[in-house]
Amino acid sequence: MGSYDVTLIVTNANGCIDTLVKPAYINIGPNLVPSFTVTNQAGCFPLSTLFTCTVPGAISWAWDLGDGSISTQQSFSHVYPNPGSYDITLSVITTSGCNGSVTLPGYITVDDYPTASFTLNNPVGCKPHSVTFNNTSTGGATYSWNFGNGNTSTAFNPVNIYSSPGTFNVSLITTSPNGCTDSSVVTSAVTVNSINASFSATPRAGCAPLTVNFSSAAPGVVATTWDFGDGTTGTGLNVNHTYPIVGNYNIQAVITSSTGCSDTIIKPAYVRINSGTVPYTVPDTILVCTPPGAVSFTDPTISSTTWLWNFGDGDSSTIKNPSHSYLIPGIYTVTLTTSMPGDAVKHLILMQS
Asked: Residue 134 is inside which H or E element, if any?
């Protein structure tokens, strides 16, 4: 490899001699391995790319583009209209007469567009609702999910939990190895229902035996299972239950909606059953002077809802804890009658003032 001088010495029959020297007359180039560049080596069909031979001193180019197309130009653009993998062959001749050829297998890759699609196993449920998404896409390498409730995923078959009720659109973007994309959007793909259960009881306090009406009737409610707190249960939207024993009872209701959702509510000490009589110790005689002769009275009962005080001097009151002034000196007997939901309860309180 290099440049070489050539010398010729000629002698005739009479012995005359002549010498001719040609410097660098022979040039031997290096072993030629053609090189080239492209603007796009991979992408989606139709893929357009610019081929350029980078061999210095090249005067002849022969390209085989792998799809049946050829070229004899140093630089040119070519469009691959179909997906596939294409071998590129380039043969070059230089000004020094050197020639060489190179073949690059699968040098150009043209992707088909993927197809994004999916199914889901349980599109309707009650919060919190877990949905498994089944990816049925083809031609994809990566996946981007948007579940419509602020959650996303890049898993192939993801699972998403919907914590709030509503109707949700779900989208999937599928990307091929070389960046080709397709998307699928399913409107109202997931429906999540809920139930905001509640119940009431009337009356909630009274004397044993007390019959209480429980109600869970509300739009969309179809069934209720009750635990009355005294070891008994019941079913129905409106039920009556009788409490024969004094006590405070925790009430539990399991309420089911027409969409299959259920909710459990527990109300501690929601029902209070009192005795028909209240033990009460008569206080000592209260001594006051007139004027003003003012005395404050306190109701000792629990859960009473009405009061009738008789102060013994012809006056009375219907408030719970009244104050009364005696204008004339004397001895007075005070009584209190109270009642609560259910049977009336009378408490005789003997007070002397």
From this structure: strand 129-135
Report how far apart, in Å, the C-alpha atoms of 300 and of each of 23, 268, 281, 303, 304 are: 134, 24, 10, 10, 9
Q: Tell me whether strands 99-111 and 84-94 are parallel, antiparallel or unpaired.
A: antiparallel
Give the pLDDT of residue 352: 47
Residue 143 structure tokens: 């996946």
User: Cα–Cα distance between 121 and 131 in angstroms, integer?
Assistant: 7
- C-alpha 196/C-alpha 285 separation (Å) is 56
d(CA 153, CA 336): 71
Contact status, residue 199 vs residue 253, Cβ threshold 8 Å: yes
Are 191 and 131 in contact, with CB atoms under 8 Å apart? no
Question: For residue 336, which of 313, 311, 315, 353 has the smallest C-alpha distance?
Answer: 311
Q: How far apart are CA 306 and CA 310, in angstroms?
A: 14
Q: What pTM, to 2 d.p., does this model score?
A: 0.64
Compute, in degrees rounded to 10, the torsion defined by CA atoms 309, 315, 319, 323: -100
How far is residue 235 from each of residues 115, 262, 265, measured CA to CA in Å?
52, 14, 15
Round the CA-based radius of gyration of the chain to a whole number and report it. Answer: 51
Of 131-140, 151-160, 161-170, 258-267, the range with the lowest mean pLDDT is: 258-267
pLDDT tens digits for range 277-306: 655 555 666 777 877 878 888 887 766 778
Beta bridge partners of 307: 338
Angle at 271 between CA 265 and CA 275, to 5 degrees: 165
254: helix, coil or strand?
strand
**β-strand 262-274 against 205-207: which pairing, if any?**
parallel
SS (H, E, C) 230-249: CCCEEECCEEEEEECCCEEE
| Spatial contact of 13 and 82, defined as CB atoms under 8 Å apart | no
**7 phi/psi in degrees, rounded to 5:** -120, 135
